[in-house]
């Protein structure tokens, strides 16, 4: 019997209940069918099709270049591999900031064409009209505060955010606002652990941390980082559970040697 036949699908309501029950929420990214299937089978609660696909899948320096069409494609691939986890998809840069009508149109496309269960967008009071419009249409929205990679050129750095009082106060205020607007959860990226704890204890919706300490209601990592496929990326918050870069390059190297030595395929591997 499949493990999935015994386990109910994770929903936004499941995450709210997990916060209430003080059960930590787990989230990882995925951008393709094969990875999504493994991540889902591993028991993760939620899968994020992040705009980080721009970095790890397409090789861009920032998340800005990826388009809505491209993220819809990645979401379609992930959806086909998932039976249990809640699927959240990023709305990319430029698809929701300009006006609330465009934001709703982008979110509707992500749900209808992509098959996502919810969308994630970055920002606070600046995008409140967009959030309200999407939520009022019945689409679940996950917020994102702290280091918001789509605003990287405004920040000019990927360093920890909200260390100064003014920015910390705005983040706290934005978190309360996102809760009031109807967001079902909130990502807190690269902020001081004490601030993340304060926010998590002050709002009723779950917080998902990345570089925001252990007191968030859940944690998220980029899959490629977590399994060690990226060697050049080593932020303080990252724990590598595998060293796939070394494993895979080693396997490829051995395959090359075997083919060149006419050791592969051997008689047992031939028809």
Folded structure, characterized:
By secondary structure, the chain is of the alpha/beta class. It starts with 11 loop residues before the first helix and ends in an 11-residue tail after the last helix. 41% of the residues lie in helices and 13% in strands. The radius of gyration is 20 Å and the shape is globular. An 8-stranded parallel beta barrel has the order 1-2-3-4-5-6-7-8, surrounded by 7 helices. The protein has helices spanning 12-20, 33-41, 53-56, 68-79, 100-114, 128-136, 152-155, 165-181, 193-202, 223-226, 244-260; strands spanning 25-29, 46-49, 86-90, 118-120, 141-146, 185-189, 207-210, 218-221.
- For the secondary structure, the number of strands is 8
Order of helices and strands: HEHEHHEHEHEHHEHEEHH
Structural class: alpha/beta
| Major sheet details | 8 strands, parallel, barrel
User: What Rg is obtained from the alpha carbons, in whole angstroms?
Assistant: 20 Å
Shape: globular
Q: What is the strand arrangement across the widest sheet?
A: 1-2-3-4-5-6-7-8
- The total of helices stands at 11
Q: Report the mean per-residue pLDDT as an integer.
A: 95
Strand percent estimate: 5-15%
Q: What is the subunit arrangement here? A: single chain
């Amino acid at each position: 019997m499949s493990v999935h036949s015994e386990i109910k699908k994770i929903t936004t309501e499941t995450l709210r209940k997990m916060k209430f029950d003080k059960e930590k929420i787990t989230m990882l990214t995925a951008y393709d069918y094969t990875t999504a299937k493994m991540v889902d089978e591993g028991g993760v609660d939620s899968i994020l099709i992040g705009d980080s696909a721009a970095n790890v899948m397409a090789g861009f320096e920032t998340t800005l270049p990826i388009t809505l069409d491209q993220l819809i494609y990645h979401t379609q691939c992930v959806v086909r591999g998932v039976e249990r986890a809640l699927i959240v998809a990023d709305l990319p840069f430029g698809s929701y900031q300009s006006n609330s009508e465009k934001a709703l149109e982008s979110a509707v496309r992500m749900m209808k064409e992509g098959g996502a269960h919810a969308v994630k967008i970055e920002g606070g009071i600046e995008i409140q009209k967009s959030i309200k419009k999407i939520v009022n249409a019945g689409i679940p929205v996950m917020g994102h505060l702290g280091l918001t990679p789509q605003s990287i050129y405004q920040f000019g750095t990927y360093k920890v955010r909200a260390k100064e009082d003014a920015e910390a106060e705005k983040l706290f205020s934005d978190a309360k606002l996102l809760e009031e607007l109807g967001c079902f959860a909130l990502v807190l990226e690269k902020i001081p652990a004490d601030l993340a704890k304060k926010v998590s204890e002050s709002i009723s919706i779950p917080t998902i941390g990345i570089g925001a300490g252990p007191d968030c209601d859940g944690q998220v990592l980029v899959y490629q980082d977590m399994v060690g496929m990226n060697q050049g990326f080593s932020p303080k918050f990252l724990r590598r559970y595998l060293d796939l870069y070394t494993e895979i390059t080693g396997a490829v190297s051995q395959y090359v040697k075997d083919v060149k030595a006419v050791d592969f395929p051997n008689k047992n591997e031939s028809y």
